[in-house]
Model the fold of this input.
Amino acid sequence: MNTSVHTELIEFVEQHIAFHRFLGVKVLDARPGFAKVCLPFREEFKGNEVRGVVHGGVTAVLVDICGAVALWTHFGPADKTSTIDMRVDYQRPAPFEDMVAEGDVRMLGNRIANVHIRVYAASMPDTLVAEGRAVYYVKREGMPS
Done:
């Protein structure tokens, strides 16, 4: 794992958010303004079994998680963020396998941040499954809301 952000971030993402633990989320890379997150495949993620594709909602969850992790690389443990808006553009069906998302912080303002996320199947890193854009509200500790 490549990381140059506080080590508490990885532990927080993987172990201290119950939903992430439930999903089995793993942070593969985290550095200022960037995160790479893996969502291991589970049988419960199956959408259309006949076509062999993951449910689109699972892809959307991964977009939001990865976007937040990329943003959190700029923050300390006491700072707060929340998703304001999120868009997912599905490029092709996601196969029954681990999915990986990479998020880049594109804009970080005093109150608002924008993150671009790309999602792909672990075995096909050059083939996009989806792209996402997420807007987050940010509040740093000690700053007025």
